[in-house]
Each structure stands twice: as C-alpha cells, then as structure tokens.
Fold Cytochrome P450 4C1-like.
Amino acid sequence: MGLNKQVFLALGINLIRRNQLQLTQLRIIQPWLLNKTLFQLLGYHRRQMKAKQELYSFIQNVVAIKRQDHEEKELQKAKGMDENNNKIDTKDDKNKDLKINSENGNEEEFLDIEYKNTKTKSFLELLLEIDHAADDKLTDAEILPELTTLFFAALDTTATANSTILLLLAMYPEVLQKVTDEIDSVFGGPDEDDGRPPTPADLHSMNYLECVIKETARLYPPAPIVFRQVDEEVPLGRHVLPAGASIMLTIAGIHRNKNYWVNPIQFIPERFHPDESVSSSHIRQRHPYAFIPFSAGPRNCIGQKYAMLQMKTVISTILRQYHLSPSPRFQTIADIDKRIRMDITLRMEDGAVIFQSRKQ
Ligand code: HEM
C-alpha cells in the first residue's frame, strides 16, 4: 500500500472510531437506549445509519483500490512481468521456508510461527487472490463484514497499544533505558546500526520490550471490555447470572485487581519477567485469567502473535531512530487515567503527547 493509501486508511479509521464506536459504547453504558423506539426518537438511529454508511463506503473504496491493484498485477503476471514491468524470475520467486521455533520461548510462544513466504500478503490481498481463482466470486457485501472486523480488531488495538507503550516509556526513563540497551544489543547501537529491518529472531530476543508491552497491556488493555451471552445459569458469589443474560467483562478491572497484582496501579514491567525470582514479588496470586489482554477461551484474539510482532517492530524501529521525552501533561499513571476513555477500544481523549527528537 502506498503512502497516500495509508493516510487514507488512517483517516478512515479515525472516522470509524469517532462515529461507530462512540454510538455502540453509548448503548452499552446507557442500556435504556437498547429500546429501539427511544433510540430512534433521540436521533441516535439516524446517526448510526449515517456512521454505518460512512464506514462501509470507506471500506468499499479500499476494496475497489485493492481490486484494481490486484487485477493489474494479474494482468502483468499473465504477460510474465512483475508490477514494475520487470520479467518475473521464477528462481527468485520461489517460496522461502523460514521456520523459527522458540526454544526458550515465553508462555505464549509468540514466535512459534512458520514464515512460509517472505513476500507477505495482506488479508484483503489473500481474499482477492482466492476469489480470483474461485468460480463462485465473493461479492463486496461478503468481503465488507470480514474487513470491518479486521479493521476494528487489528488496527485500532495495535495503534492504541503502540501509542500507550511510547507514552509510558517516555514517562519512565529507567525503563526506556533498559529497552534501548536491549535494542542496541540487537542492532549494534547508534554507531553500528545500519538501519536493517528486524528479523523474526531479533524480535524474539527482545524479552524486556515484551515485558513492557505486557505491562502496558495490563494497565491499559486496548480492548478493555468483552461481551458474552450466558448459555446456562451461572452462580457468581452471592448472585446468579440467568441463562440468556448478556454480560460485560471488564478486562481492565481484572488487570488492576489487587488480589492478583502487587501495587496494581504502578507500572512495573518486571512483573512479566520470565524469571520467577524477579516477577513473583510483583504478583500476589498467579491465575490463568488474571492477565487476558487478548481475552481467553474459544473466541479469543486470533491475531495475538502477529500483534506482538507488530508492536515489537514498531516500538524498536521508533526507538532506533528517536529519543523520547516526557510531556509535562503526563507525569503519573493518574494523569493517563484521567484522560483515558473506554470505548470498545481504549482511547486517549486528546491523544498521547510524547516529545521526540531524531537520534544523530
Ligand atoms: C494489541 C493488540 C490486540 C489486542 C489487545 C486484541 C484483543 C482482542 C480481544 C480482547 C479479543 C476478544 C474479543 C472477545 O472476546 O469478544 C479479540 C478478538 C479478535 N482479534 Fe484481536 N487484539 C489485538 C490485535 C489483533 C490483530 C493484530 C488482529 C488481526 C491481525 C486481531 C484479530 C482479532 C479477531 C479477528 C478477533 C475476533 C475473534 C473471534 O471473534 O473469534 N486482533 N482481540
């Protein structure tokens, strides 16, 4: 995707977030708005339809651009040329199997992934490719809901996570120093870093950065709430959840529960240190569901391994090139808490302010 298309995408996401998410959120926290008549009378239905229309026409535009790109590429391929009008060299084009297994991997085994093809394709490109080969073509109406889910699930979450990680790093210079030292040990530091892109093995070795990412996701889970429908009656303490009830689970609340975390409101990446002698003094009780930024169970996040790689890539790339300095507006966790809003995804009311300067 070229730069213009990326800017277009970013603007679109902003539009989606502003309209769609805020209306959905409103109906969650003001359940009387679930009443259709009231929702219509108060003008929300009209706003929602307009937002949906904006969202769909935005995504339709993206699909149209990609369809056109794809068709041009297929045409070139049929002529034996690549997109830059060079003859395709089949020897170079063969799939390169690069299998990485984490030997001393962490609990999620983030890098237990097979990189089948170094020429990676986006989800939409894959859909269009499959579609191109199929007799029964997918319509835009079939592609749109798939893309909408991915837009919400993948882009907003990682964007929020990356900005919150940078904000916390800017606020905690001693943590930033440790992350910088780790990154320098991988890429050789300012004098030797030749700007090469990170390899999967580089990303795998960024253990302390991973602790920072997890601790940020504990304090500020990008998807702070999830919803479930209760299949059968569930006793819960002194209460009973009736079958059929809709429930909202606050991941953000679980992550700050003092039964599980020591000083839960403090930013302590060492909680996630693989060495228990380091982590245990910051954890009161280990429970499999005390840390669930990607949810848990059969409907958990399908993109969590990719998300971790993406966050490590983005943060390490920025830190290789920029110094971060704290903003006077964000000195403490309480300062962030005051400005954070729980939409379907977490969002900073007026953005995360971080001062940067380019490294020489
Ligand atoms: C920091 C980044 C991310 C966080 C915190 C996150 C979090 C979550 C959570 C909490 C859920 C579960 C929702 C539920 O239980 O109802 C979820 C679902 C999902 N996520 Fe992620 N996610 C992230 C990144 C991604 C990425 C990068 C992708 C795609 C590449 C992705 C794709 C999905 C999809 C498709 C679902 C729906 C799965 C289903 O309904 O079965 N997510 N995510």
Residues 194 and 214 are 28 Å apart (CA to CA). The radius of gyration is 23 Å.
